[in-house]
Amino acid sequence: MLIEPYEALVDSASRRLHDVPRLKIDDARAKAAGLRKIAGRRLVIYTDLPPNAEIDVLPTAFDQAFGQWCNYFGVDPAQHADWHVTGFLMKNRDTFAKAGAIPPGLPDFPHGYARNYDFWLYEQPSDYYRRHLVLHEGTHCFMNTILGACGPPWYMEGIAELLATHRWKDGRLTMNYFPQNRDETPMWGRIKIIRDAYAASKAMHLGGVIGYDALAHRRTEPYAWCWALCAMLDRDPRYQTRFRQLPTRVTKPGFNRWFFDESDFDLSELNDQWQVFVCDLDYGYDVAKSAVTFVPGKPLPPGGTTVRVAADRGWQSSGVRLEQGKTYRLRASGRYQVAKTTQVWWCEPGGVTIRYHHGQPLGILLAAVRPDPNPEPGNDTPTVCPMLHPTAVGLETTLTPTTSGTLYLRINDSSAELDDNAGQAEVQITPSA
Q1: pLDDT value at position 16?
Q2: Element (H, E) at 257
Q3: What is the Cα–Cα distance from 349 to 367, expressed in whole angstroms?
Q4: What is the pTM of this model?
Q5: How many Å from the N-terminal Cα to the C-terminal Cα in the chain?
Q6: In this structure, are 252 and 300 located in the same domain?
C-alpha cells in the first residue's frame, strides 16, 4: 500500500532545487514582448492578459496567503520577511518565451508548474480557479523554499489543493476552506470527480491514493483524490494532530511509513473511515461530525440493553457485539430534529418519506455490523465497509449477522446536513426468542 522512496513530480518540483537560480526578468524586454507587471509584497506577476480587477488583485490575495501558510506550517514569518516569488500567468506561452520568461528545461504542463521561487500557469476559465491555481503553485513554492520539500505525491498535491481551496470575499482570503456549495468554487470540480467515480463504482481505495506515483498528476482526477484524503485527515479529530506534524517530515525518509504506523492508529479503521467519507462526500460535508466512533462492542447482556443514537452524528458504535448466526431484535423510539428551514422537521426512527437520502427515507434508523478484526498476520487487505450497505431498522427489525462484530447505528442524513439536527433515538437490542 505504501510507496517509498518517491521521485520528483512531473507537474512541479517536489523539493528545493539548489542548483536552479531564481529567474531574473528584464522588465523592459518583458514589456516590449507584450507583458505587464503586477507587483505585491510577496508576489510579482507577469501576464499577457489585459487589465482585469480579478487578475490585478492576485498579489493582494497572495500577500494574505503568506501569513496563513506560516500559521499552518508553523513558520515564523519574521524569519522570512523578504520571502517573495514570481509568477507567470500565461495566455500565450510563446509571448513569455520571447520575454525570456521560459527558462531552458522547463517541462510542458497542462495547468501550472512551480520551481523554487517561480511558478507558471495558464489562464483558467473562472476567476476562482485562476486564484486557486495561484495559491496551489504558491504552496509548492513556500514548501520547497522554506520547508525544503513537498513530500510524496499524495501529500504534495493534496496539501496544495487543501490550502488552495479557499474563500475570497470582500477582499479577505480564507484558505483551507471546505466549500459549502458548488457556486463558491466555479470550475474547481473536485467533489464532482469523486461523486461521479463513486457512482460508477470506480472510487479510489486508500492505498491507491497513497500510492500515486510521480506521473499520476498529469491527469486531473488524482488532484481530487489527494485533496479528499488531506481534507479528511486534516479535519478528523483522530488524525488531525498527527497529520499536521507531516510538514516536519517532508525532507526525511520514511514519510509514509511514519504517518501510517499501525502503532499509532488502526489502518482498518482508517480504511473504513475513508470509504464512509467518499460514499457521502458533498459540499458542506462535516468531517468532525461524520467521524465514525470506532469502539469495539462487548457481548450483549442476556436481558438485552438500550443505547442512544445522536441525530447530529455519523456512524456510532452501539458498544454491543453481535454473534454470527444469532438473531437479534432492534426496537427504536424517540423523536428528533433532522432539518430546520422555516420550521423544525421532526422525525421518528421510521423516517420521513417526503425526502430520501441514499435511497432510504430521511431520518430512518440504519444499522451495520462491522466484523471483528482478523487476527491472522498479513491479512490486511481492505474490504468493503459494511456501513456503505446498511440495514434499515426503522421502528423495529430483526438482524441475523453473517459475521460476528460490533453493531453500528446512525440516523439517515447527508453528512453535509448534520448541523441542523438535534436529539436522539433510543434503540433496544435484545436476543430474539
Answers
A1: 87
A2: helix 255-259
A3: 12
A4: 0.93
A5: 45
A6: no
